Every structure is written in C-alpha cells, then in structure tokens.
Amino acid sequence: MTDIDDDDLLAPAPELASDAGPDDSDDALADGGVGDGQGIVRIWVQDGRLTQVRVSPNWHTKVGRARLDDCFTRALMLANVSVAEVGARVAPTFDDVDFSRLPRFSAGAFAAFQGAFDEVEQRWDDALERSADDHPDPLPATVGVHKGVSVALTKGGIAERVAFDPRWLETAQAGAICSHVMRAAENAYAQFTPAQDDRSELDSIEAEHEFLLTAFKAMLNPKERS
C-alpha cells in the first residue's frame, strides 16, 4: 500500500464511494476485507499484519459524533477475531494409550493419583514462579507513528488500535489517512520485538496433568476402556 501513488490513494474505493457505504452484512469477504459496520473504514489483514486500508471519502459526514479512531478499533477487533494466536498450543490426545492395565478404583489407587496430581501442581506453581522472575516487567506497547497517525500493536505483534492527532485529522483527506495509517503500521512492525516466552516447561507439565486426568477418568470408567 505504501508504494501506491498518492493519486491512487485519493481515488475513492468502489465499495466506499457512495454515501450509504459498503454493505457490511457479509463482512468476511474472500479477500479478507473487514469493515467497521458503518461503511467508514475497511481493512485487510494477512498473517496477522495490516496490509491495506480504505476510508470512505465521505468519512467526515458519516462519522457524526463518533471518532475515526473508534471506527478503526472496531474494524481491527473484527479482523483480529479470525487471526489465530501465533504458537497456539494444541491439546494432546491419548487415543493410542492402553489404559486397560489400570487398577480398579480403590482407596489406595485414589491416594496414588492424588499424590501424583499434588506433585504435578507443585511443579506447575514452581515453574510459574520462575517464569515471573524471568519476566518481572511487561514489555511496553509497540507504537508506530507517521505524521498525525499512530498504530499500536499487541504483545503478539497484531495491530489493535489506530489513533489520530485531532488537529492533523481536521484537514486530512481519505487517501492521506490510508497512506499514513499504513506507514505508521509499517513503522510499528519494524520496531516490534517478539516477547521471549519459553513455555516448554509449562506445556510439558500441563500435558502431564492432562495425561493423569485422562488416566484417572479411565480408572473411574473401566467399561469405556475395555
């Protein structure tokens, strides 16, 4: 978007050209475009990054008493709902484990499982405490700025907020807004440093806890494991 000539940026986008604005009844377009619901802003996100922005040429009259900042926030929220968290953990399954050799439920078996659960939970608490010690201070928000526009990223590097200098916005046209939003976003992405969050130990302990829970349920329901 930043390589497009200013004349092209100032040209009204077809779906935003009318006073009525785009039809947002089917916002999840095939190309990924997502609107704010008022026909003022439409954004495109790919792989969690803002790739294109369009603003209605008539945004001054459409926005009313609201703020253009809020229109961008709504569009970003709707777009980010469909963005999968990077590194999202897939819960393990134990379909290939043979639980048929588990003992029948008894006071002794229950005590053994209880001891195992207590031990895993203690290691979980210890690991959380070590993780907190390694990351005592949260990273500051990453914000990119260009002209009168700023774009803030989440700790995962996803654009979540666009803010405008009110004085700059008073005379800004739709094309200039689009251009500077994208340039502010690129500045933010250039500054972004992913948080060093090593969850390997926590994930391992959580998987162990889930295995114990699955085994305990299998012991309580021997017919389901036969």
**Helicity, as a percent range:** 40-55%
Shape: elongated
Content-based structural category: alpha+beta
Query: What's the overall average pLDDT, rounded?
Result: 78
The separation of the N and C termini measures: 60 Å
Q: How many distinct helices? A: 7
| Largest beta-sheet characterization | 3 strands, antiparallel
Sheet with most strands: strand arrangement: 1-2-3
Percent in strands: 5-15%
Model regions low in confidence, pLDDT < 50 over at least 5 residues:
1-30, 84-88
- What is the radius of gyration computed over CA atoms, rounded to a whole number of angstroms? 26 Å
Number of strands: 6
Secondary-structure element pattern, one letter each: HEEEHHHEEEHHH
If you had to describe this structure to a student in words, what would you say it looks like?
A hairpin with a 2-residue loop joins strand 4 and strand 5. The N and C termini lie far apart (60 Å). It is built from 7 helices and 6 strands. It has 226 residues and is α+β, with helices and mostly antiparallel strands. It has a 3-stranded antiparallel β-sheet. The chain has a 3-stranded antiparallel β-sheet with strand order 4-5-6. Helix 4 runs antiparallel to helix 7 (200-220).
Describe the secondary structure blueprint for this structure:
Elements: H1 6-10, E1 33-35, E2 41-46, E3 49-55, H2 59-62, H3 68-81, H4 107-134, E4 142-146, E5 149-153, E6 159-164, H5 166-169, H6 174-191, H7 200-220
Key features?
226 residues, alpha+beta, three-stranded antiparallel beta sheet, 6 strands, elongated
